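#lab-general

N.A. 3:47 PM
ok so I finally got the sequence cleaned up, no stray characters, all 283 residues accounted for. can someone with queue access submit it? mine expired

B.Y. 3:52 PM
send it over

N.A. 3:53 PM
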Amino acid sequence: MIIDGKKIAQEIKTRIKDKVKRYKIKPGLAVVLVGGDPASEIYVKAKEKACHEVGFYSEKIVLPEDVTQKKLNDIVIGLNSNEKIHGILVQFPLPKHLSENKVIGIIDPAKDVDCCHPFNIGRLVAKKTINYSTDLIPCTPKGIIKLIKTTDVNISGKKVTVVGRSNLVGKPVSWLMLGASATVTVCHSQTTDLIMETKEADILIVAVGKPNLITRGMVKKGAIVIDAGITRTGKKIIGDVDFNSIKDIAGYITPVPGGVGPMTIAMLLENTLIAYRNQLSFS
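B.Y. 4:20 PM
back already:
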């Protein structure tokens, strides 16, 4: 069974749009883009389009690649106090002379819709029960959980293997899985026997950025396989999972593109709506 992230994301956006129609004040999202990285420009354009689609107020701030740290920090501080903006997203990666950690630390945690601020990460790790309706949760991991839940497979007690330990995907999705009472293994470049770990997984989540890293002999029959890896080769997008060789043995699998990617943007919109409601103190 192929998990259609594009369809699920569209259903979520439709629900958000229906809610926003009732609001006099529109939820506002600001996206800050530094430089002209082609991939980042594509992502920002998709996010801007999604905001308009659901009726959000949207601001895109494009800064030159040689912008100073102080100028970038001042932009973010200004957005923190802007009442029209309820969510702030600084598009990464930044040019090498800029500190991503400094920028993350300046964003108001209440407006941190990508959930990168240390306060939000700490709260996510410390909470025993996560409320998906009111808590800010990293967008891609949140989308992954929602994709898995559409299978009606109970995560509790399942053996989950996460390949990749990034701060954006690998680590937070493993915390969410632990919160759902799964038994979690996190693999990375120093894992001694990756095949052994992946073949035992009831749920396999891969987020490395290495094309076709996971092949047929590495997947347990009937497993849920979530491919969160993206590599661009010319005009083609390739995932971390060899989809064609695995699709007939997996119980459920996400395609690339059309799987996790659309859900990440849908979760950004959902997080912006949550931040908006939290700031305005209504449900």
